[in-house]
Amino acid sequence: MALILTVLLPLCVGGWLVAGGRHLQRSAVGLVSLVTSVVTAAVAIWGVIARSSFDRAWLPDLGSRLHLRVDGLSAPLVLLTVGIGILVAVHGLTHVPEGGRPSTFAGSLLVVEGGALGVFLAGDALLFFIAFEIVLVPMWALIGRFGDPHNEAARKDAAARFALFTIGGSTLMLLGIILLIVRTGTADLTLLPAAVAHLPHGTQLLAATLLTVGLAVKVPVWPVHTWLPPAHTTAPTAGSVVLAAILLKMGTYGLLRLPVLTVSNGFHSIAPVVAVCGVIGIIWGGLVCLVEQDLKRLIAYSSVAHMGFVALALSTGTAAGFRAAAYGNVAHGVVAAMLFFIVGGLKERWGNADLATARAALRETWPRFGFALILGLAASLGLPGLAGFWGEFLSVYAAWSSGTTLLRWCAVIAAIGTALAAAYALRVARLVWVGDAVPVERVAAAGRDADRSEMFVLAVLGVVTVLLGIIPAPLLTVTGDALRALGVGS
Amino acid sequence: MTSTLTVDLVTLLPLLAPAVGAVLVLLVDVIAPGRVALHHGIGIAASLVGILGIVLAVNHGRPSTLCTAGPTGTCFLDLTGTGAGIAMAALFAGVVILLLTWPGRGMTLPVAGPTATALVLTAVTGASVVAGARDVASWLIGLELATLPVVGLVSLTGTRRAAHGALSFVTTSVLSFGLLAVGSALWVYASHRVTFGVGAAGAVWDDPTRRPAVVLALLFMVAGLGFKISAVPFHMWTPQAYAGAATAVTTTLATVSKLAAAAGLIAVTRMLVGVPAHQFAFVMGLVSLVTMTIGTAVALRQDDVVRLVAWSAIGQGGWILLPLVGHDGGGVAAAAAYAVAYVLASLVILAVVAIVSGGAGSGDEPGARSLAAYHGLFRRHPLVGGALALGLLSLAGLPPGVLGLVAKVTALRAVIGVHLWPLAVVAVVNVIIGLAVYLRWVAALFGEPRPDADAMTLTRPAQIALGLGALALVVTSVVPHIVLWGTALG
């Protein structure tokens, strides 16, 4: 029961805010969304601890049930989602972008949260797909309506590109899911792996290809990543955070849950392609970050690189790789959320996020942002002791130790990618944190440092980044146990 | 022969009630002229009685009637297997249309008085007859009953534009009737029977001397129905007739007539169950693919919402045809489910179009039908805007319109079940284009209202009509099983 509440609460309150909340004051909207996200988080934590599940008949004709459950693979992402939900709601108390009513904005964010929770909790392939589709329209509205107010054409283009890429990906994924349902007669994710194993290899290969391509659009994996940078560039701060910390995670979680674990034989055949695409993404993202002039777009490209590590880890097909992927997933969720909160805050104050403009040193003008930025960049480049390190290190390790020549080469190139990450992180630090020599009066007129809600958000994310880096064992253990329960040895 | 027929009045209610209603309306007008509200009341009551009849017949396990006695007896009316769902949807459409055109302020049927009401009821009767028809004569009569009254309604609109629309519509209808009549005659000639049984074509198919006649019969019947369901290349009348007629008539055309056409096609396809007619699947697949692509692509370019609806109706017709390529029980049920889902969404969309364009909506105010008139509709009237968004997202196949999504899933399942992968891929492309079509309209809804736009007021009957339509969509989106079950009985 706790799980269905976890999903329905944000969906219903969010839907109500969008549909009926138009007369609410800004402060009331903020309060409603904060209370909802806190209650959702409490119910979710209770559901995760109690390992509760929910199972009702829903669409017998399609072999699909209303089945929600939680395991070690989904629990960390559920917690990440509800956590980000609270942070976004806190941030929304003081930051509501222009473009529409605050109730529409907060409502859309809650619906995205509810849909994401549905994806992570779904124990049924069709339900998983439907939950995936729930986030599309509200996210499209967040980008298209509440995005960068300076450039309407870019905003519309980014929103449309996001929607069309995503629906294309999900429909391909749907074909794969239907293929599995038609051939096995069930949509239950716990029954599917055994049922799929009896299918002919051709069918498995086809299903795995459809699912992988469809989900690769959402991760996104190079070369279908082109929707992500514009979406991130135009989305409002909270939208970018949700996009990076929750939506991309749905893609990687989907990859792990559907093609990798469910159609493992079929995925095994296409894994080399995924590995190569992942590695190209790492290098591609890194190289773009070395020259990109828009700070938000730069962080978006760094996300493409980070997702490349996750794709590489998944393609190894080993328990070590899956643990690396799960870890990298959560770590990127935390670090990217932090970076987008910072960069979004800077963009709000600067008016744009152009790196070519000469600006005063962040460490002097806004030391709080400055410190958080350095921490975020350090975590992003994979500095040991911070969250980003373990995901990347373990990915490269898993790829190297899996033994095939191709994966070893991929490991080497991915390691070079980490060097690129260091280079672009230092570039950003030099341009923004060290800054340029500008007259003192411009510094004084530049605006204010992080306000209270931003401080809270950044502090929480900073502490989690450090904790994940220092004590990686609990998360790795939870994932490992779940994989062992699914029959993937460590 | 007639003396041995068993007659079950309850099962006949879905056909009898609207027919009796039509006669009653005319009678009442003779006795007490000018009581227009009474006509609508009678019509709505008659449709509701019909719906009640279906519920009772199905619940009491008596879905077929007019049966001949004996072990080889056949039934001439059978609501099992797609019939109940389609007839129910047609009767429901009748209720909504008559409520929308309730006399007073707001929209009207083209001619006040009993004729228009009786014509709508006759069309509903026709759709119910086709839905349950198991013999050539009822099938043909039902199809014409569902079309000819609408031809009358289109021509009664009386404007110049309507005259153009009516002319091409009349020509098409006559041609279509000719094709259907010749097809039916060929069928009777080839098979020596007047009934349309499941797999009836099988026995004839195996006889090489009779096969050419059966193929011709099928071709003629499918071509005739192609006109009615607006399949490319028989679709040219659709935009003209839709745009020329009053919105209430367009609604009848898009819902009741479309259901009759779908039911007619389903009856033809049902005869092919178990027949290895790959050529039929090829033709059906090709028509479906071209129809959905052209309809959806042209809809993308429309600015007049009624023309947009018309082209989208063509595209959606392609989706109804799509699962018929399987020509097995599942494919037939999927086509019926898709038709019902499409009709429920279209009812809501056209009800809103009628409300927004106000009055007769016969194209006298072109401005009221442009997409610009829908800017900020959600803010001006959340119920109207929200209902329209729900209807559009249902057609696009996105949550919260889960019904449309499930309908697409069942349609694609039928295609994947017979390994027609090229079709599935084209369908995916069409989902993407379709999303662009419908999101364009949704985007307008959530925009800023025009400064000169005044608050909208709805008449009570229009409120009820829209509320009923939206409620049906919501309920079937929460439990889509209802529709799948109603269209796959037996």
Can you offer a commentary on this structure?
The complex is a heterodimer of chains A (490) and B (490). With 490 residues, chain A is mainly α. Chain A has one domain. Chain A contains 21 helices and two strands. Chain A has helices at 2-20, 26-50, 75-94, 102-121, 125-134, 136-146, 152-184, 192-197, 201-218, 228-234, 237-262, 264-291, 295-315, 319-350, 362-365, 367-380, 387-401, 405-434, 440-444, 452-470, 473-485, and strands spanning 53-59, 64-69. A two-stranded antiparallel sheet of chain A has the order 1-2. In chain A, a hairpin with a 4-residue loop joins strand 1 (53-59) and strand 2. In chain A, helix 13 runs antiparallel to helix 18 (405-434). The radius of gyration of chain A is 21 Å and the shape is globular. With 490 residues, chain B is mostly helical. Chain B has one domain (2-486). Chain B is 70% helix and 2% strand. Chain B contains 19 helices and two strands. Chain B has a two-stranded antiparallel ribbon with strand order 1-2. In chain B, helix 3 (83-100) runs antiparallel to helix 4 and helix 4 packs parallel to helix 10 (247-270). Chain B is globular, with a radius of gyration of 21 Å. Chain A binds chain B through residues 15, 19-20, 22, 58-62, 100, 104, 115, 126, 130, 133-134, 136-137, 140-141, 144-145, 160, 163-164, 167-168, 171-172, 174-175, 178-179, 181-182, and chain B through 379, 382, 386, 393, 398-400, 402, 405-406, 408-410, 412-413, 416-417, 424, 427-428, 431-432, 435-436, 439, 442-443, 446, 479-481, 484-485, 488.
Gist of the model:
The complex is a heterodimer of chains A (490) and B (490). Chain A is an all-alpha fold and 490 residues long.
